[in-house]
Amino acid sequence: RILLVHNRYRSGAPSGENRVVDQEGEALAALGHEVMRFGRCSDEIEQWSVAKRVSLPARVVWSRESYRDLKATLREYRPEVVHVHNTFPLLSAAVLYACRDARVPVVATIHNYNLACASGTFFRQGAICHDCIHGLQVRAVVHGCYRGSHAATVPVALAKGVHRQAWRSLVSAYIFISASQRDLHRELDLAPGRVFVRHNLIPRLDRPRTGRTPTVVYAGRLHEVKGLH
What we know:
Helix content: 25-40%
Order of helices and strands: EHEHHHEHEEEHHHEHE
Number of helices: 9
Mean pLDDT: 93
Low-confidence stretches: none
Strand content: 5-15%
Radius of gyration: 18 Å
Shape: globular
Number of strands: 8
């Protein structure tokens, strides 16, 4: 019994992470596992009152609602493992503590660089940036790395500092989507025996064999941060 935990990205911005979570859930179910889901969608924020939106920065650091609701879900469904994907911005690291208190092991897939970078990209002003990889997020606030805003970066940076140890100690296994991504997270000092690399799934498609041509295909978001100019 597997509980997938994921904060879905806004529907207006196509998300590879959303697609990966859906594909993996379908693949696990096809293998005979019982798969359940717990999560929120960032689209919800658009429906919030002004007063509730004001509370969003605090929720990024700690979501009491997510902690309470996940504990209730764990108590009711009793999964054998929780697979955490994205927790930003509505779930927060509170989900890790809920799993700890319920004594349910956590596997986390690290899809990006959010554990060490406020923007989640290691990219700033047109160049690669590793200023915050050692844990101090002060520079992220100074540069306004999250959405180009100093104020918006504060809760993001604070959450990383407050819960850094939780991400190190409350996760039983870390799944990175590439060896290079794993290597860039070495400064987090994650236990090596709990770190694994598993690439994203690519569904098999049966197609007629055709002649090969010298072609390069890029599949992804058309944005400079992806390496496109």
